[in-house]
Specification:
Largest sheet: none
Shape: elongated
Mean pLDDT: 84
Order of helices and strands: HHHH
Number of domains: 1
Oligomer: single chain
Strand content: under 5%
């Protein structure tokens, strides 16, 4: 029998009973996008492994996002006409970080570089 999002949410709630509904929904989405077949998450070891991997990827993306936000806030105080090449690179890196976070949530493969 195929695993549904509801089944996955129940498993997540058992593993992390303190999680609020938004966190459970977010984890369902991230895990479902991470796995080729949702049925694989029915296995406890596979679920734990996927959970840990997604946790690390999400934490890394969150850390990158926080750093980029700080850089962008600094750039916002500068006249764009006076940007240096380094500041343009900061903008390009910010776009890349946003793209990585979006890829986690929509499950798409990264664009060719």
């Amino acid at each position: 029998m195929p695993m549904t999002c509801h089944d996955l949410a129940e498993r997540i709630e058992q593993m992390q009973p303190e999680a609020d509904p938004k966190a459970v929904a977010r984890l369902c989405l991230l895990l479902a996008n991470h796995m080729d077949q949702l049925e694989g998450l029915g296995n406890e070891d596979t679920l734990i492994e996927a959970w840990q991997e997604m946790g690390m990827r999400l934490q890394a993306a969150t850390d990158q996002h926080a750093a980029m936000t700080e850089d962008l806030e600094k750039l916002a105080r500068i006249d764009p006409a006076r940007f240096t090449m380094d500041q343009v690179w900061v903008l390009l890196r910010a776009i890349r970080v946003q793209s990585q976070i979006l890829q986690l949530y929509v499950g798409s493969a990264p664009a060719d570089e």
